[in-house]
Structure formats: C-alpha cells, structure tokens
Amino acid sequence: xxxxTEIFSQYDKKWALLTAGKPEDFNTMTISWGGLGTxxxxxxxxxxxxxxxxxxxxxxxxxxxxxxxxxxxxKPILGVLGSKSGRDIDxxxxxxxxxxxxxxxxxFIEAEATLICRKLFVQELEMDRIPKDIRTAFYSDGDAxxxxxxxxxxxxxxxxx
Length: 161
Ligand SMILES: Cc1cc2nc3c(=O)[nH]c(=O)nc-3n(C[C@H](O)[C@H](O)[C@H](O)COP(=O)(O)O)c2cc1C
Known about the structure:
Layout: H1 8-14, E1 16-22, E2 25-31, E3 34-39, E4 42-50, H2 54-61, E5 64-69, H3 75-81, H4 91-95, E6 99-102, E7 105-108, E8 113-124, H5 132-138, E9 145-157
Antiparallel strand pairs: 1-2, 1-5, 3-4, 4-9, 5-8, 6-7, 8-9
Residues 15, 27, 29-33, 48-50, 53-55, 79, 82-87 line the site of flavin mononucleotide.
C-alpha cells in the first residue's frame, strides 16, 4: 500500500488562508494548524481559531468557510495576513489577492486549491482537557482556540493554462 503522508505537511509547511463571510463583508487569516479527514461519513476539514481573531467573528456568524492553499510564491503574503488584523487595516486589499465568491463564502482567485466547507461543529478547546505542558506553551494568556469542523462540500482548483 502506498500511503501518502504529504497531507500532514499541507497546513504545517504550506500554510493556508481561512476565510469566512460574504463578498461584501468577510475576513481572512493565515492558519497552519488543521486537519483533513472524515466525520459523520462526510469529508471533513478541521481548523482552530483563537477567540481574539477578527476572523473568529465571521466563523461564529457564518454557516460556511473556505480554506485556500497557495503556491510557495504567495508565502510572504500569507505571512502578512497572519500577522496583521482585519480589525485594524484593510489587509486583504493591501495583500493584492483577488477575492471571489465561492459557494456561500469567499475565496481567492490566486489559490491553487480551495476547500469550501459547511460548518458542522464548533467547540472550545477546554483548558482542563489540555495537558499542562501544552497549556503553558500556548495558553498562558488565556486566549483559547475554538475548533471548527466543516463538511468539505466542494474542492476547487485554479484554472490550468
Ligand atoms: C504561519 C501562521 C499560522 C497561523 N495559524 C493560526 C491558526 O491555526 N489559528 C489561529 O487562531 N491563528 C493562527 N495564526 C495567527 C493569525 O493568522 C493572526 O493572528 C492574524 O493576524 C489574525 O487576523 P484577523 O484578526 O484579521 O483574523 C497564524 C499565523 C501565522 C503567520
């Protein structure tokens, strides 16, 4: 059996943009934690969003979100979208990326691949269920992650030349 382990580095090494909202009002941020698998017999994607993120507001209010993967050349852009908040500046305009409607949500023309996800489940990662060393390393400021699991309802690839 040929087991493809490349998927494990998809988020960790390549990063991605998590986007939620409608074309007229949305936000995006860089993520590098997440998962792809199966839940309730559906293809599923999991992401983790701290409550302090502006994107969290949209993840709460919207029923859909997208996860977009880009080529290596876009990594500097993802670096900025992962360090500035859409609360403070129009970082999406500044990024030069081109937003587009994608199903019930928003994605980017420049993405190599986009997962369109329907929100299925949300839960806070409760502190008393996390090992102490992880709590100390990641949550000393109390800014907890919420876990969002979405059904992958569509996968879109960039048009090939
Ligand atoms: C490589 C990278 C990975 C990140 N992964 C996550 C993540 O998985 N979850 C999260 O809550 N924040 C993550 N962040 C931080 C957010 O992208 C960052 O705080 C961003 O500025 C939030 O933007 P917003 O306030 O406009 O939502 C990551 C940042 C970088 C640079």
